[in-house]
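Batch manifest line 314
LIGAND: calcium ion
JOB: complex structure
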Amino acid sequence: MTEPRKIIIDTDPGQDDAAAIMLALGSPAEIEVLGITTVAGNVPVALTSRNARIVCELCNRRDVKVFAGADKPISRPLVTAEHVHGKTGLDGPVVEEPTMPLQAQHAVDFIIETLLSEPTGTVTLCTLGALTNVAMALNKAPEIAARVRELVMMGGGFFEGGNITPAAEFNIYVDPDAAEIVFKSGIPIVMMPLDVTHRVLTYKARVEKIKAIGSPAAVAMAEMLEFFERFDIEKYGTDGGPLHDPTVIAYLIRPELFTGRDCNVEIETKSELTVGMTVVDWWQVTKRKHNAKVMRFIDDQGFFDLLTERLARL
Ligand code: RIB
Ligand code: CA
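JOB STATUS: finished
ARTIFACT:
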């Protein structure tokens, strides 16, 4: 029996972030959540910090430490996505305001302190939002780059294009400068782009299966998905919307659900037309160094079977 994998979840909840947090907390044999760090993205950081604690309380995990992080990107104005996630960022279910405390330490300092105190190569960073906190930690303590086991991130897109602009996916678009720092850091990266997450659709039958679990966490999750998917159903005309963030956690538990390859990825930070684009050299047409394992395909039914099974354990 291997030890559970130690992770920090960096997140901007967001209903799909909530699904990722629940999947992680529902998998204690495989995953030990050292802490949750919040970042501005889908909604401002005060709300992402509220929402992260609401999700922990829905899972009866008031013990999880939640640290508030960056309230804006490194050098650009904040862009948010209330049009997708609602004004609270967690619209859908009726929820109680959280009563568990927010940690006093800043998220960036928690990331640095944890990476410097845990044995090198044992902590995985799971980023579900803009990469601002991780980039700020790298700027403040560059020595942490060599200590990260892996950074598994939801972000970017290549053949699938963008979702906030024709070229850019939201998490990268919010803070392209941070993404550039992270992709140039040398940290081993696993990238979950829209090419994967657009194949992970919240079909009605899948949401009904989650709701049928009947627990407060599962019912709230189903109601979040019913709210969250309305925007994407309208936009893509599909049955259900793409469930982006929990693919990051699913990769840690069942990597065999995914296929991809080592590639070079660079970030567009200059052009106003394509800023935030992840330029993925999938066909290896350049000699640029591989800096990410880029996922392209997923067994989406296997993913939902895992998600549903783990939500039922909460
Ligand atoms: O583009 C999708 C990503 O942006 C997801 O992480 C969603 O939660 C938002 O942060
Ligand atoms: Ca997110």
